[in-house]
Each structure stands twice: as structure tokens, then as C-alpha cells.
Specification:
By secondary structure, the protein is α/β, with parallel strands linked by helices. It has 2 domains: 254 residues, FAD/NAD(P)-binding domain (3-Layer(bba) Sandwich), CATH 3.50.50; 176 residues, 3-Layer(bba) Sandwich (FAD/NAD(P)-binding domain). The strands form 7 sheets. The chain has a 6-stranded mixed sheet with strand order 2-1-8-7-6-24, with helices on one face. A 5-stranded parallel sheet has the order 5-4-3-9-25, with helices on one face. It has a 5-stranded parallel sheet with strand order 11-22-12-13-18, with helices on one face. Helix 2 runs parallel beside helix 10. Pfam families: FMO-like.
Length: 435
């Protein structure tokens, strides 16, 4: 084992010092900086000094930004494809909620032929084209079970598990980028009587279409963009949805004056303070949508942009759900008190029968379950402790991409900053070696 550790240190130094000279010659061979097949103890010193965990949009953006600076990286992905959440855990009718120019990843725009709000399938095609364009080839089927900084060797040790028990691998890298995102795991709330309810209860990650709920009474729990859109989808398939709204929520038109509300907001913020822009948005929303309080949708005291800026809470961009609430096709309910075999009792005392329940209760980060010995992420919610725009950089070469609560635009900002910082560190280390 001492011999292996000595070889590890030599191979890390040699590879790290000479990578720029050989990266084009060994582009296809250099897949690992160092790895140990746990069952065979086989070492391989070739490969990139940067590991990225997660092959979603954030991981792809990070890899592309590094590639632009001549730095190779390797993405570790637990599933067998790019962007597995978009592939398998989203509903059929999903489109990007923001115009495509605010959702493109660094250095490659969406095709001009695509609509302003691309479909799920179109976005996935873009991601696959993005990976191909930059020559990004993730290692699929690699679930990271632990990542910890080795203070002796000054390197990150990243252990993965493959589909088979014997496929355990340990990677060693100089820089580690966490790109597993804010939506790695489902959030399932604790509801009294949930196990007693006899109808199907599914999270939106398992919801595909309202076609199987035709003619049924369906309760949707959660009034974010997903909950609102699922309700609309259920209406379109002749189901009878009800929406649980426990907290306040900002609902804005998706477009104003023929322009996207988001794009208009970004333009206005160049000229006016956020408080003034919020007042404008609320005035226009009232004129276009009416008083949402009349339908059980109370607005927060803070404006939509201030709320997003301070707490990362995204306003709902209405695409037709509110009209269905107004005409009574979607009922708004208060919070749930308890469930019974086929009914729901609400906190206001009302009891109604339902055939199914859909939980649009969001997702959470899973970083604390595998990142060890780091103080960068909050144990409770798995998000960086430092708020945006300062949450992207940790200690000992650790970075986070895609934890900004600002969608794909925030991930792109993180990816560019991370690549620039790694390049700076790389050059500083090379200068030290020369000296």
C-alpha cells in the first residue's frame, strides 16, 4: 500500500505538470487522473485534474467552460444518460418557463428555428448537441457515495459505486465541482394519514400526463410553477383538479406587451431600483390578471423580484392556469389537516373525496449525503451556506455550479466563474513548479 501511495503522488504530480503539453495527444486516452478499482487495486495515472459530479445542464456548462480554457475534466453521472431529471422525471407537456435566450448554456446558443419556449424534447436535443459540440463524454453509471479532501496529498478522493456491487471506484483529483443541483431528490411532506389513503399518491417527478386521470378528482399539493402547470394539464385531460395553497404566492403573466415578463424585468432593472420594478410588475399583473386574492391566492408582502433576490422563491408565470381557477375548473383549497381512506380533511374543516393525490412539493439537494468534511454546504437543505453570488467557491479546490436558485442562467454564471478560478489556480501552480 505504501508503494501505491508513492506511485499515486508521483503520477498526480507528473500528470498535473505536463497536461497542457499532452492534452491534444491524449484527449481520448486521458479519462482518469487516478483511479483505484477497489476490488483489484489497479491504478491508472492518466486523466483530467478536475472531476465534476452530475451530467445535467450545470455539469455540462462547467465542463464546456473548462474546455474553452484548455482544461480537461471528467463528469461522473449516476444515471446512464445526460440530464436524467429532464429525461425521466419531468411531465410530457413541460416547456422552458423562460425564453430560450435566458436558458442557453455558455458558448452555444439555441438553434434560431426553435420557439421562444422550447419543449422538453427540444431542450434535451440541445443538451445532447452541446455535449457533442464540446466533446464531453461523462462516465455514466457512477454514483458518488463519498467525496473527501485528503489533507496529506492535497487532493480530493471521490468514491463511486457502479450498477454492480463490485464496480466500486475511487478517483483522485485536484479540483472538484459539485453540479448535482438543487433538484437531486424528491421532497415528500409529512401528511397525517398519507399511508391510509387508498388512491395513488405520486410526486410530480413520476407524473407524465393527465390522460390516466380523466374524470377523476385529483388533489395537487403545491402551488409553484409545476403544481400550476400540472393542474392545467389535468384540466386539459378532463380531470377535476383541486390545488392546495398553504402560503402566499406571486402570480405574474408570462408575457407583458408581447415581451417575456422576465426579459422585461431584466431590462427595467438596468434603469430602475428593484422596488420600483416590483411595483410596476404588480400593477400590470393586477390589470391583466385581476385580484388573485379573490380566488384564494394571496400575494406576499415583498415584491416578486425582491422575494426572489432575498429568498430564491420563484414567482409563478401563468400560462393559463389562473383562467381555469377563475371559471371554477380548478378549485383552490387551504392546507391539509389529515387524509383518510378516500378523503382529505382541510385545515378549514372542509372534507372532500379524492381519487388521487399529486405532490408538487419540489426537490432538494443531496450533497450532504456524500460530501464529507466540508463546511461549504448547509447540512439541512444541501445548499451553499453563502448566498448568491458568493456560493460558488469553497475550500481546497471545491466548487458548486447550479445552486443559485436562479435556474439555468445562474448555473451559467457559476460555470464561467469556476472555470476562470480553476485556470487562475492552475497557472499559479504551474508557476510554482517552474520556480
Amino acid at each position: 500500500m505504501d508503494y501505491l501511495k508513492e506511485q499515486e503522488g508521483k503520477s498526480l504530480h507528473d500528470y498535473y505538470h505536463h497536461q497542457h503539453q499532452h492534452q491534444h495527444q491524449h484527449q481520448h486516452q486521458n479519462q482518469y487522473e487516478y483511479q483505484i478499482k477497489i476490488n483489484r487495486m489497479v491504478t491508472s495515472p492518466k486523466g483530467p485534474a478536475v472531476l465534476i459530479v452530475g451530467a445535467g445542464p450545470s455539469g455540462l456548462a462547467a465542463a464546456a467552460c473548462l474546455k474553452q480554457k484548455g482544461i480537461q475534466s471528467l463528469i461522473l453521472e449516476r444515471d446512464q444518460c445526460l440530464a436524467s431529471m429532464w429525461q425521466f422525471r419531468t411531465y410530457d407537456r413541460l416547456r422552458l418557463h423562460l425564453p430560450k435566450q435566458f436558458c442557453e448554456l455558455p458558448y452555444l446558443s439555441f438553434p434560431k428555428t426553435l420557439p421562444s419556449y422550447p419543449t422538453k424534447q427540444q431542450f434535451l436535443a440541445y443538451l445532447n448537441a452541446y455535449a457533442k459540440h464540446f466533446g464531453i463524454n461523462p462516465a455514466f453509471g457512477k454514483t458518488v457515495v463519498s467525496a473527501e479532501f485528503d489533507h496529506v496529498w492535497k487532493r480530493w478522493r471521490v468514491k463511486t459505486q457502479g450498477p454492480k456491487k463490485e464496480e466500486a471506484t475511487e478517483y483522485v483529483c485536484r479540483w472538484l465541482i459539485v453540479a448535482t443541483g438543487e433538484n437531486a431528490e424528491q421532497v415528500v411532506p409529512q401528511i397525517e394519514g398519507l399511508e391510509e389513503f387508498e388512491g395513488p399518491v405520486l410526486h410530480t417527478s413520476l407524473y407524465k400526463s393527465g390522460s390516466k386521470f380523466c374524470g377523476k378528482n385529483v388533489l395537487v399539493v403545491g402551488c409553484g410553477n409545476s403544481g400550476m402547470e400540472v393542474c392545467l394539464d389535468l384540466c386539459n385531460h378532463n380531470a377535476h383538479p383541486s390545488l392546495v395553497v398553504r402560503n402566499t404566492v406571486h402570480i405574474l403573466p408570462q408575457q407583458m406587451f408581447g415581451k417575456s415578463t422576465f426579459g422585461l424585468s431584466m431590462w427595467l432593472l438596468k434603469w430602475f431600483p428593484i422596488r420600483i420594478v416590483d411595483q410596476f410588475l404588480l400593477l400590470m399583473s393586477h390589470l391583466m390578471l385581476g385580484d388573485t386574492t379573490e380566488f384564494g391566492l394571496r400575494r406576499p408582502k415583498l415584491g416578486p423580484l425582491q422575494l426572489k433576490n432575498l429568498y430564491g422563491k420563484t414567482p409563478v408565470l401563468d400560462i393559463g392556469t389562473l383562467a381555469q381557477i377563475k371559471n371554477g375548473k380548478i378549485k383552490v383549497c387551504r392546507g391539509i389537516k389529515r387524509l383518510t381512506r378516500n378523503a382529505v380533511e382541510f385545515v378549514d374543516g372542509k372534507v372532500e373525496n379524492f381519487d388521487a393525490i399529486i405532490l408538487a412539493t419540489g426537490y432538494k439537494s443531496n450533497v450532504p449525503s456524500w460530501l464529507k468534511g466540508s463546511d461549504m454546504f448547509n447540512e439541512k437543505d444541501g445548499m451553499p451556506k453563502k448566498a448568491f453570488p458568493n456560493g460558488w467557491k469553497g475550500e481546497n479546490g471545491l466548487y458548486a455550479v447550479g445552486f443559485t436558485k436562479r435556474g439555468l442562467l445562474g448555473a451559467s454564471i457559476d460555470a464561467k466563474r469556476t472555470a476562470e478560478d480553476i485556470e487562475h489556480s492552475w497557472k499559479a501552480d504551474e508557476a510554482t513548479h517552474v520556480l
